[in-house]
Every structure is written in C-alpha cells, then in structure tokens.
C-alpha cells in the first residue's frame, strides 16, 4: 500500500456525498485537512426540477417518492464547476463518495456505449439525458411496494428467512421490491434496462466512464445479496424479477478500486489520468467508516434527512427488525443499523408550522419548556414511518400524566392552538 508520505507534494483527495437534498464535495490534502468544499442544493439551485426536499411525491400512488435521475447529473456538473476555481484537479490522486442508500438508477440498453465514449467538448447533461430507461429514481423514502415485499418474503419462506439470508426482511424502500414493482407495473422499462445501479455505483460509473460495481455493503440494502457469502442470492433474484443478475453486474468490496478516472474528466477538467476512483458506498456505511467505529458494541447516531443508529458487530444475527450489512472497512465484520424515515424534514416541518421557520425561535421555545414537558410528548410522522411502521401525516401523542394515553392523531387535525394545549411554551 502507498502511504500518504510517498504521494507527490500537494496531492489532494476528492470526496462526494450524493444525498437526498443536495450534492456535496470535500477536498482534503496530504495531511487530511479540508482545503475546499462546495454544495449544490437541489431545490434552490436547480429549481427547474421543482423538487421539494430533493424529491417528488406522486399524488396518484400513495407513498411513491422518487427523484429525477438527470437532476443528479446536472448537479454533479455544477458542483465540479464550483470547485474549478478552488482546486487544481490535476493534483487529485483519488476520488470517492457516498450515496443515499436504496436509491436506484436504470440505464437504458446501449447506454454503456454512451458512457464509455463521452465527448469532453459537450456537457454530461446533454450526453446522458437519454441514457435511462426511466427518468425516475425510486429512493429510500418510497413506501409504495408493500405488495412486492410480501411476495418476495413468501417466495423465500417468510420474512425471517429472508432476513437471515439478506440481512433484512423485505422493506418497501429496498431496491429488490422496487425492481419487482417496475417489472410488474412497467415491464417495458424493465426489459429496456441494461444495468441497474444504486446511487453510489451510478455516480462512480460516471467518474470511470464504465458501469461500476455495486459494493457489498450498499448492496446489502437491496434484499438481494446473501449477507454471508456476499454474492447475489439466486433464490431472491428469482423471486424478484427474471434475468436480474445480468442487470446488476458483479459485486465488489466497499474499499476496492472502481477504476481510473474517465478520459472525459482528464480532458475537460485536467484530472491526472492516473487518478483512482475508489468504490462509492452508501451514506450510512461511509458514516460508520468516517467515525472510525472499531470495537463491537460501538454505536453512533446520525440525525439527517433520515435518523439512523448504527454500530459494528463480529457476527451477523439478522432479525425481523433493523438491518445487517457487511462492515465497509473490516472484511470479516458487519454493521447493524436502525433507520427512521422522519428525520430532519419532519423537524423542519414542525419548525415551519410553529416557530416562524426559525431555529432560533424553536430553540427559545425549547429553552422555556420544562424537562419532559409535564409528561406530554409528541412523535411526528410527516411520511410513512419505517420503525415502527406507522402512516404519514400523523402525530403520535403520549400523555403520561393521564395514565399513559398513547394516541395517533392525523396531522391535519393538529394546529398551533392544539399544540399550545399540549406544549405551554409555544405561543400562538
């Protein structure tokens, strides 16, 4: 392995984070000090896509939430343009990144030829706008595949058997059920699909000008991979859709080299032709790696668009709740995770409704609230919740002072007057 000290002077490392609401870049030097960073917010900087929180909600299909695939391409180009005056791309020795887990991209037949022969005189947007069999990428917030989840579980012998095989029971946002839904409801799209990528492998594919492998850790969030063998499970593939293995390609470790950077970026932005692209992985596995959790029992909490709790373990013991993935940096280890859909977007919604869209005002209310608020607690669900499974647009109200009453209240029945009665620190 080449150490940092043996790298050319001035070497840089470029990392990306392709999340639900934005695309970010961070540049580190030899000493792993941040020397530059940039961000593209999808809603505000690419308003022509008309996303809210980076996503679309389909009013005709309850729980169907997706993002426009091509928006991610345009954001990637814009982010590189923002970085151009800040760094010398020829000094970048390695590039990698993380992608929101469970999002999927569907490359149209013939798109590999386009991807591998990109013209540096033209934009990525203009060359890739017709490269997808569907322009809609299902993402982790989607909850429209209950039927497909049950079908896959039944086909392999039940939810627990699927969990022991793949690390999780069938979850609506997981890529396997999403693929099955497309196969069942839009068979022409499935037939016209040459390769299926996750968000992580999709972005890596653009950088190498070739279809990058899905990595084993992010691939475990698909309900398709044998968690112990770290190969695609033929049993689950057959239960999901025909001819699926060919569309998925081969798996790779999260720390493997995906390839050298594509000539497109060498000629257009003057990257060094020897710059390595390291496998991208999911945002949660990369958070675990970045926090350097290294002892079984270590836990971390991430409060993002979704809220997650994750840690590491020496053995895989999947159950009916939560997830087990291969550890992204320890070949023989595993990571465990719980995921809650109603994270920052739900907190922001409460802030906007009751604190004049200001965190300062929100915090002032919080400071004036006595601990435990006299026994009145609320859990807010803007979207269908994963854990526990609860419908969106509701508030789960726990009033402990009244004999532990637990009530699920529709959000449209909640206004600031009602909230004032529960939470005296809020002033309408």
From TrEMBL:
Enzyme kind, highest EC tier: transferase
InterPro entries on file: ATPase_NBD, D-XK_euk, FGGY_N
A Gene Ontology cellular-component term: cytosol
GO aspect biological process, one term: xylulose metabolic process
Catalytic activity, as annotated: D-xylulose + ATP = D-xylulose 5-phosphate + ADP + H(+)
Pfam families for this protein: FGGY_N
Entry keywords, A to Z: ATP-binding, Carbohydrate metabolism, Kinase, Nucleotide-binding, Transferase, Xylose metabolism
Leader sequence residues: none
UniProt domain Carbohydrate kinase FGGY N-terminal: residue ranges: 139-288
Xref: SUPFAM superfamilies: Actin-like ATPase domain (SSF53067)
Domain of life: Eukaryota
Role this protein plays: Mediates 1-deoxy-D-xylulose (DX) phosphorylation in the cytoplasm prior to the translocation of 1-deoxy-D-xylulose 5-phosphate into plastids. Can also phosphorylate D-xylulose (Xyl). Uses preferentially ATP as cosubstrate.
Family: Belongs to the FGGY kinase family.
Protein name, as recorded: Xylulose kinase
